[in-house]
Amino acid sequence: MPDEIIVYQSKKMCGNEIICQTKNRGAEQRDGLFHRIALKVRTRFAPTPSGYLHRGNLANAQINAWLAQQIHGDLVLRIDADDRARCQPQYSDFIVASLRELGIAYTLYAPDIESRKEYLKSELKLIPRQNLFACDCSRSSLIEQECSCREQSLAWQPGVNALRLHLDPDLTATVNGELFRLHDEFGDVVLWRRDDIPAYHWANVIDDRDLGISHIVRGRDLLASSALHIHIASMIGAVTVAKAQYHHHSLLVDSTGKKLSKSQQSNAQPPTLDLTFLSDVRTSAQELADELGIAVP
Ligand SMILES: [Zn+2]
C-alpha cells in the first residue's frame, strides 16, 4: 500500500491554513484541529476524473513520483473534481487503482468540495478589484465575438455570470525561457465559471500555493498555462508557485501519431491494469524523464 496521508480542509476553516490529518506520520492535534504539515519540496499529480486515465496521464504520475524521490520530497495526489457534472466515481477509483498497481506512494488531498468552493471564492479578494470584471457572454456568443463585458462594469453574480481577470495585451510571462503574451493565449481569463465553479487556472494556483508544491511536471500542452499561473501567483503573492520549478514533457501519441485522450464515453472500458500496460507506462515515463533530466530509480 502507498504511504498514504489524508489531507483536507477543516469545515471550520482555520484561517487559510490547510488542515492535515496524517495516518502514519503521527501529527499532533491542537485544539481539536489538525496540524499543518510543512514540507519543503513536493510534486503533485492533479488529474480530473472525467474519463479513464491513459498511458500518458499515468506516465506523468510516474515521473512526478520519481522527481519526488530525487528531491527527497513527496507527491500529492489532488483529484480535481470541482466540476461534479463531468466527474464520475469510477474514474476516481481508476486513478487510485492505477497508482496502487504502479507502486506510486502519495499524499492524498481530498477537501470537501463545498467548503473548498467557498474558500476559493473568498481568496479572490487577493486580486485587485479593478483587474476583475463580470462577464455575461454565453459560449456561443464568444464564438462570434470577443468578450467586451469589461466596459459594462456588471455586478458579479456567482451562478449567473462569470468572473474574468483582465490581462493587458502587453503583458508577458516567461516559463522555462519561453515568453508568452498572456492575452493572446487566454484573452481575459475566466477565474470563476458562469456555472459557479472555480475555473481550472484559479483553483490550480491556490491549490499549489496551499499545498506548498515546489516542483511541477506537466505536458507541453500546458506550457502557456504555467506562464499564466506564474503571473497570477506573482499578483497574489503566492511566492512558492511563482518560483516553483516547472518541467514540461512531450505528449505521448498513439500508433497513428494522434495525441492520447481520456476515454469519456459512458460505455468505455478502463485500460486493463495488467503487466503489459503497466510496463508500457513505465517505459513511456522513462523516456519522458530522460528528456527532462529526472533520475529514474
Ligand atoms: Zn463577456
UniProtKB/TrEMBL annotation:
Keywords: Aminoacyl-tRNA synthetase, ATP-binding, Ligase, Metal-binding, Nucleotide-binding, Zinc. Pfam families: tRNA-synt_1c (PF00749). One of its GO terms (biological process) is glutamyl-tRNA aminoacylation. InterPro entries: Glu/Gln-tRNA-synth, Glu/Gln-tRNA-synth_Ib_cat-dom, GluQ/Sye, Rossmann-like_a/b/a_fold. Residues 40-152, 175-266 form the Glutamyl/glutaminyl-tRNA synthetase class Ib catalytic domain. GO terms for cellular component: cytosol. Coiled coil: none annotated. GO terms for molecular function: ATP binding; glutamate-tRNA ligase activity. SUPFAM superfamilies: Nucleotidylyl transferase. This is Unannotated protein. The lineage of its organism: unclassified sequences, metagenomes, ecological metagenomes.
